[in-house]
């Protein structure tokens, strides 16, 4: 068999035997079904408007998932827009094995991206920290991949985090962000719109 037809046959065989898991929607576009408003003190308004979830500006404001959610070997995809404010517009808290972590987007004055926390260092201090400019009223696709020993994240098509966590201490930054467990989206002094939230299971790491 020639190389090209052989590769095609192998690809089709793999697709049949190991089909990709389908994305499971977590927002129906009309209500907060499956979510609860996170009980942060000093929180802003949360509401569904124009097929988006509006997370208003407060000290911390957010939503927490109330349904089942995997602890590892999954991907999450979110479309979020910073409407106004001066700090993070998408703090995504997620499980990783038996621990929890937060992926910060736009923290510490609006520019820091990173994980909070690794080895007791937050997103502004550890080796996942980087500076990035976020525009208001622009949709960003945030994709997170969590496997047993690695956390990866993309903003649109740019890979911004690739962390081997096999020898790291994973924990949440002390404070009310604990209320976002097991999975939540929060803002700090910033208003955000979210219009798409979904996840899917992936194959475990080799």
What does this structure look like?
The chain has 206 residues and is mainly β. It has one domain: Exo-inulinase, domain 1 (Jelly Rolls, Sandwich). The chain has one helix spanning 3-17; strands at residues 24-25, 35-37, 46-49, 52-55, 60-65, 74-85, 90-96, 99-107, 112-116, 130-131, 139-147, 150-155, 158-164, 184-188, 190-201. The strands form 2 sheets. Strands 1, 3, 4, 6, 11, 12, 13 and 15 form an 8-stranded antiparallel sheet that branches. The chain has a 7-stranded antiparallel sheet with strand order 2-5-14-7-8-9-10, with no helix packed on it. The longest helix has 15 residues, at 3-17. It is globular and about 40 Å long.
How does the SSE layout of this entry go?
Layout: H1 3-17, E1 24-25, E2 35-37, E3 46-49, E4 52-55, E5 60-65, E6 74-85, E7 90-96, E8 99-107, E9 112-116, E10 130-131, E11 139-147, E12 150-155, E13 158-164, E14 184-188, E15 190-201
Q: If classified by CATH, what would the architecture be?
A: Sandwich
Look at the structure and give the CATH class: Mainly Beta
- Tell me the series of helices and strands, N- to C-terminal: HEEEEEEEEEEEEEEE
What is the CATH third-level topology name?
Jelly Rolls
**Relative strand content:** over 45%
Q: What is the tally of beta strands? A: 15
Helical coverage, percent range: under 10%
Enumerate how many helices there are, as a single number.
Answer: 1
Largest sheet composition: 8 strands, antiparallel
The end-to-end distance, rounded to whole angstroms, is 30 Å
Q: In terms of structural class, how would the helical and strand content be classed?
A: mainly beta
Average predicted confidence as pLDDT = 91
| Low-confidence segments | 1-18
